[in-house]
Design a protein that fits this description.
heterodimer, A: alpha+beta, Mth169, Chain: A, three-stranded antiparallel sheet, elongated, B: alpha/beta, Rossmann fold, nine-stranded mixed sheet, two-stranded antiparallel ribbon, 22% helix, globular
């Protein structure tokens, strides 16, 4: 089973990387860009065929390593 | 504890890069210190004479650098490895009152580990704060001035001045508390005397960028646990040790750097244990 785990900054947490990317895109003339948010994605290959079990394991991974709950939220998409 | 009983371990893994200066700072003050790879504590592929036990030491330092390439988040992988192999013994170490210090990336490790701010437990199950990307979005590298806010810690007891200069060099140093609970977190830190260093300008005033290099809430540069024996700070005291490593050396400043007072404080704390 392959899952994609998206790690995003929680609402209200400043995203300097996104803001700087926005500035650079504007400088390059992309005038229609309104906002840029940075999101990190881990594509995780697992030896687990049961989707619910896999999801539980992935949530545990997020809680224990992939996300810092103070500033980040996570979203799991099964492929 | 006598001076000759002090043993300092500066933990390294791939990507740490300030262990030599940190070991050097302690050795210069006349105590035994060595850089120890984390694997020396647990791996069975280590030669017998290189095996170590956490009980061999009386202080542990997580040095600066880019441990594990800052992958996932700065400090996240180092802290995960500590959790998997050393959590219990590190907890005991802290509860026995021995000093644990995290400098720069080491601060990030202690935060990710849950060893700071450690409001309710020696090591919390989840991180209770974060060190986010600097507001400038850049790696900030320059001398920074810090007001010593508390001397009731294992690291600041002998600092005889209000303002110290330790250089900063980091991209992820902005102290962030959970959204909506910032005031509560600040109150708890203040109540427990956990705020140890705050960024100021050369005149000693709490100021914004560039004196606060990262946009940290309340200008926080370093905090300790409620007992004062675990400290994390973003600036580097080990880079302000000798007169000739001070940024004003070529302008004629010949006094010892403020970092010496910091490391001396740790030794004096241990000699009272």
């Amino acid at each position: 089973m392959i899952a994609e785990v998206y790690i995003e900054l929680k609402k209200g947490v400043a995203d300097p990387e996104g803001e700087n990317t926005l500035k650079a895109l504007k400088l390059l003339g992309f005038s229609t860009v309104r906002n840029v948010e940075t999101v990190k994605m881990f594509r995780i290959h697992m030896d687990e065929e049961d989707e619910e079990r896999a999801r539980n394991i992935l949530e545990d991974m997020c809680e224990r390593l992939l996300a810092n709950p103070v500033i980040q939220s996570y979203r799991i998409v099964m492929k | 504890m006598e001076l000759n009983e002090i043993r300092v371990a500066v933990l390294r893994i791939e990507g740490t890069n300030c262990e030599d200066e940190t070991v050097h700072a302690f050795k210069n003050l006349g105590v035994e210190a060595e850089a120890v790879h984390l694997k020396q504590f647990y791996s069975d592929t280590i030669r017998e004479e290189e095996k170590r036990n956490i009980r061999d030491y009386t202080a542990i330092v997580f040095p600066g650098g880019f441990s594990a390439g800052d992958y996932i988040r700065a400090g996240a992988i180092f802290s995960a490895r500590i959790k998997s192999v050393l959590r219990k013994s590190l907890e005991e170490f802290i509860e026995n009152g021995y000093p644990v210090l995290g400098i720069c990336n080491g601060f990030q490790v202690l935060v990710e580990l849950g060893a700071l701010p450690a409001f309710d437990k020696t090591i919390s199950d989840r991180p209770e704060m974060a060190l986010g990307i600097n507001n400038s979005g850049r790696f900030e590298c320059r001398p920074t001035f810090l007001r010593v806010e508390s001397r009731n810690t294992a690291f600041t007891g002998s600092i005889d001045r209000d303002i110290v200069m330790f250089p900063s060099a980091h991209a992820e140093g902005r102290v962030i508390f959970p959204d909506g609970r910032e005031e509560e977190w600040l109150e708890r830190l203040k109540e427990n005397g956990q705020i140890v260093f705050r960024y100021v300008d050369p005149g000693g005033r709490y100021s914004g960028y560039p004196w606060n290099p990262n946009g940290s809430i309340y200008n926080i540069a370093g905090i300790c646990n409620p007992d004062g024996n675990v400290l994390g700070l973003m600036p580097h005291p080990e880079r302000s040790f000798h007169p000739y490593t001070h940024c004003s050396w070529t302008r004629g400043r010949k006094e010892t750097g403020d970092g010496e007072l910091f490391f001396r404080s740790i030794l004096e704390y241990m000699m009272k244990l």
